[in-house]
Amino acid sequence: MEHVNIGKIHPDSYKQLLGLSTHAEAAFAEAGLSPLLAELVKIRVSQINGCAFCLRAHSRDAVAKGESADRLAVLAAWWESQYFSPVEEAALQIAEDTTQLTAATKRRELAGSLTADQVSAIRWLAIVMNAWNRVAIQSHYPVSA
């Protein structure tokens, strides 16, 4: 099948997703969650989905916001490291649960780390990131050096 850039063919749908993304990012910030944590959530969702385009973009954004190479290196196995705070661990668990709807095998007890507002904001950000991953993957966005 021919590669089809779905955002270019249906720009109104793309713009609606961009609007939803903007609202989810605002809710994340209003819930008191850091912009760097937002990038970690986006990267983790993109790792699970295998979206090279989004991984490159959000890894660069995370580095620009001060993220360390060590934390980025262990993000795919965050639960085995001591690099992440309880809030970050809870956010990453929520991102994984939202992305892998049936994968609760690594679920950890994270109650009390986040407010309901924060949980909702993280879930919305993960939902939007999942949508962006699908747009990029289905449109075959180029990723090269």
From TrEMBL:
<dbReference type="InterPro" id="IPR003779">
    <property type="entry name" value="CMD-like"/>
</dbReference>
<protein>
    <submittedName>
        <fullName>Carboxymuconolactone decarboxylase family protein</fullName>
    </submittedName>
</protein>
<dbReference type="GO" id="GO:0051920">
    <property type="term" value="F:peroxiredoxin activity"/>
</dbReference>
<feature type="domain" description="Carboxymuconolactone decarboxylase-like">
    <location>
        <begin position="21"/>
        <end position="97"/>
    </location>
</feature>
<dbReference type="InterPro" id="IPR004675">
    <property type="entry name" value="AhpD_core"/>
</dbReference>
<dbReference type="Pfam" id="PF02627">
    <property type="entry name" value="CMD"/>
</dbReference>
<dbReference type="InterPro" id="IPR029032">
    <property type="entry name" value="AhpD-like"/>
</dbReference>
